[in-house]
Structures are given as structure tokens and as C-alpha cells.
């Protein structure tokens, strides 16, 4: 769903290939961890972004939604890779094009489960088509599930999650999502109405929450379907 981009990011063209894009992200230190890099290389953005897939900018995908800039996907994977292992459960809220959900599915292994939710049915249907282009096995194996749902409610059925990614900005940290995070788990989420921060939320084994600001960002709001479709922000 997100318009995800760093608030100070500059548009840069990376036309050519997924590998060149990832090399650029690595060179600029948006991603350094081998597992995160491997996931990015394994899922071609061209299957998910209708135009200019290798530009490091958000791209409009319809219905008031965008696919986030590649550097934001890289940052999310970089900071969640450490808590995602074989058999992990991951929740991707505002899954949009399905790109990041597919990347997460590469990380969880055959015993893991990734749930992507978006409240726009047309986007979910398109995301399934996108994933099937080169990664149909992620869906057929049950490793990746893409559902139509209100992301503000999470997806309690598959909770608790070792990792949660939220692709739209919440004015406050949503307690509902924190409750679905496993002890020792981590969530990355843009928080704020105007001056937004991309926060890393770690849930300690005793349930305490530790926050860390990863970046200042600009995201569309985590809102109701009707408001998103009408281009409203409340």
C-alpha cells in the first residue's frame, strides 16, 4: 500500500536488471546482510512494478496505492532478516503488489508461512498474478498466502509472528499488531501523521517493547478502504 520512500531520498534510475538495482542498494548501504540480498535477487521487481521497475522510486499500481521504493524494501529486509528463520511466520500488511511478501517467503523456508493482507481485492488478485510469473511455487506450497483483509486488524489466525512489516503509516503504534508479534519478534512500521518515522519495534521475551527510529519517511496512511479509494488521508 505504501508510498514508501525516505523523506530525503533522491530519484535515481537503475534501468537494466534486478541485479544492478540490488548492487546499487548494496553500494549505498541500504542492504548489507547476505540473506536480505539473496531475497532481493530472487524476486524480480519487473514482475510487480508496471513501469520503471528498476528506478529507486515508488511506482503507482492503482487504487490509491504504490509499490514502495526499492530502498525501503531493502531497509525492511535488512532489519527483519535477523528474526526470520526457517519455519518463521511473517505478516506483511498492505501487501500491495506482493513484492515484499514474496521476498519474505524466500526467507522463511519450506516450513514457514508468510501472510500478505491488503484491503483492495483488485490489488490482491493482481499480486497473485505477479507472484505466479516466476515464483508460483511459493503459493502452491502454502508458504505464501495473500488475503483481502483490513490490515489494521492484522491476521490473528497465523499469529504470533516473528516479523511484521507494515507498508503504510499509522498515526500511533497499533496495539493490535504489537499483540500479534511473538516474544523476540520484530516489526517495522512507519508511524506519524506528517513527520513520519520508520520504526523498528522489538518485543522482548518479557513483553516489553523497544523502539528504534530507522529513518524519516513519507508513506500513505494506514486507513479505511473507502478513504484510500477516494484519495483521502484520514
User: Which structural category do the helix and sheet elements fall into?
Assistant: alpha/beta
Tell me, briefly, the overall form.
globular
Instruction: Evaluate the radius of gyration.
Output: 16 Å
Largest sheet: 8 strands, mixed
Quaternary status: single chain
Strand order of the largest sheet: 1-10-9-8-7-4-5-6
The total count of strands amounts to: 10
Number of helices: 7
3D architecture notes:
Helix content is 30%, strand content 26%. It is an alpha/beta fold. It has a single domain (5-229), classed as Vaccinia Virus protein VP39 (Rossmann fold, 3-Layer(aba) Sandwich). Strands 1-10-9-8-7-4-5-6 form an eight-stranded mixed sheet. It starts with a strand and ends in a 5-residue tail after the last helix. Mean pLDDT is 91; it is low at 8-15. This is Protein-L-isoaspartate(D-aspartate) O-methyltransferase.
Quick recap:
It catalyses: [protein]-L-isoaspartate + S-adenosyl-L-methionine = [protein]-L-isoaspartate alpha-methyl ester + S-adenosyl-L-homocysteine. By secondary structure, this protein is α/β, with parallel strands linked by helices.
Amino acid at each position: 500500500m505504501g508510498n514508501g520512500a525516505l523523506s530525503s531520498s533522491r530519484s535515481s534510475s537503475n534501468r537494466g536488471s534486478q541485479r544492478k538495482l540490488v548492487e546499487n542498494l548494496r553500494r549505498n548501504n541500504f542492504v548489507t546482510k547476505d540473506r536480505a540480498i539473496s531475497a532481493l535477487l530472487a524476486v524480480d521487481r519487473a514482475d510487480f512494478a508496471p513501469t520503471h521497475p528498476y528506478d529507486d522510486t515508488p511506482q503507482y499500481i492503482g487504487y490509491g496505492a504504490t509499490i514502495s521504493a526499492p530502498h525501503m524494501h531493502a531497509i525492511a529486509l535488512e532489519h527483519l532478516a535477523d528474526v526470520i528463520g526457517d519455519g518463521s511466520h511473517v505478516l506483511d500488511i498492505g501487501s500491495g503488489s506482493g513484492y515484499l511478501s514474496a521476498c519474505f517467503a524466500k526467507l522463511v523456508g519450506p516450513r514457514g508461512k508468510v501472510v500478505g493482507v491488503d484491503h483492495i481485492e483488485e490489488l490482491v488478485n493482481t499480486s497473485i498474478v505477479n507472484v505466479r510469473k516466476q515464483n508460483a511455487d511459493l503459493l502452491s506450497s502454502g508458504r505464501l498466502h495473500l488475503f483481502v483483509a483490513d490490515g489494521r486488524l492484522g491476521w490473528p489466525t497465523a499469529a504470533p509472528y516473528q516479523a511484521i512489516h507494515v507498508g503504510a503509516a499509522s498515526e500511533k503504534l497499533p496495539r493490535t499488531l504489537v499483540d500479534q508479534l511473538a516474544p523476540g519478534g520484530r516489526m517495522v512500521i512507519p508511524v506519524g501523521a506528517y513527520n513520519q518515522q520508520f520504526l523498528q519495534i522489538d518485543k522482548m521475551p518479557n513483553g516489553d517493547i523497544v523502539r528504534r527510529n530507522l529513518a524519516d519517511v513519507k508513506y500513505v496512511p494506514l486507513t479505511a478502504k473507502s478513504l484510500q479509494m477516494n484519495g483521502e488521508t484520514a
